Amino acid sequence: MNGKYLKIPVLIFAALAWSAASVGCGKGDAHSEETENHDGHDHDHEGHDHESEDHDEHDHEHDHDDHAGHDHSGLIELKSEQADRFGVKTERIEPSLFSEVTVVSGRIESKASDEGVATATRNGILTLSPNVNVGVRVGAGSPLGSISASNVQGGDPTVQAVTARNAAKRELDRLKPLHDDGIVSTEEYNNALRAYEEAEAAVKTSKQGSASVNSPKAGVITRLLAKSGEYVEIGQPIASISGNTSLTLRADVPEKYIGRIAGVRTANFRPAASEETLSLEALGGKMISNAGSSVAENGYIPVYFSFSNDGSVAPGAFAEVFLKSADRHDVLSVPKEAVVEINGNKCVYAAHGEGHYIKHVVSLGASDGKRVEVLSGLHPGEEVVVKGAQVVRMAETSATAVPGHTHNH
């Protein structure tokens, strides 16, 4: 047969093959669309083989590992080893006692019994040691400076005392033999003897040269009451030292809350320069005054607590005070660190199976400075993230930043 006639069936066959291929691709698209919308899609379905050579580079296990926060129906994925490494901790929350709280301002003060004052031991010019400044810690008996009278107008009083003592001694020595011979009366002799004893006592109480000023106790210098180069007299205050072992928390309660003070048992407080809220109970604190023993000042009633200082609190600092009174039963609460604010909503994260977490939007109530009441959004028995909530938040954010997983191949 002529070669040109042989080309006709070849062309017809090619056209039919192309048409079949086009129909097959169309079915594949329909299947893909159905896969996206059909929850019961089976990856082992005949004709959709992830093990085929055409899909060698698509590894679902690999994708699953790389997208730590990949979201399937609201779950946030964070592997257990990652959670442990970044310090994520959970706590099973159950209804418990929760105190009524009144939030007021306050101040941390030194106790009077824990204060000491270094004083001048003689008259003279004060010279403080170079390292003596407010805030410096000193030991009991540590030298704070010295006092010298050598340059004081009128001369060194010690030298004057010694001169007076020597003169009294010479007079006594002159009168003694005369008294023994009956030439000088006993009264005259006794007057000379008394003058000598007084002069001798003056010498003993007066120190020649310079005298040291020492700290009366171990602690921190809180105030300097005299300056170097200043003239001081015996007994004049030089420096105030606080042992800081015991402090006082003063809570200034507005008069409108006077009815609540009677029920106050203890308090939590947060120093102004700290992010941490401290518990008076944990510091051995106790109330030392209440409304019945305090007098209102400028519309506020001071309430005082004493507590042991563990070194984390400095006297003089202002504080936010959470006065705790009557207990309420069956209150669901979480630590403040568990709450994360997202787009104006208060949220917490709860564990949801191994390596997964879920976000709850919650409504909050009162806070005692350490824990906050949960009014809605959580249920008793849930494992809430109480440390590392921001780590889970980052896992959630990274998941939304990754392109969505798709089954279109």
- General shape: elongated
Instruction: Enumerate how many helices there are, as a single number.
Output: 7
CATH class value of the largest domain: Mainly Beta
Model regions low in confidence, pLDDT < 50 over at least 5 residues = 1-72, 401-409
Q: Radius of gyration from the CA trace? A: 43 Å
- Structural class based on helices, strands and sheet pairing: alpha+beta
Count of extended strands? 24
Q: Largest sheet at a glance?
A: 7 strands, antiparallel
How many domains comprise the coordinates?
A: 4
Distance between the termini: 47 Å
Task: Name the CATH superfamily assignment of the largest domain.
Answer: RNA polymerase II/Efflux pump adaptor protein, barrel-sandwich hybrid domain
Instruction: State the helical fraction.
Output: 25-40%
Percent strand: 25-35%
CATH architecture of the largest domain: Beta Barrel
Strand order of the largest sheet: 14-13-17-3-12-16-15
Q: What is the CATH third-level topology name of the largest domain?
A: OB fold (Dihydrolipoamide Acetyltransferase, E2P)
User: Average pLDDT, to the nearest integer?
Assistant: 77
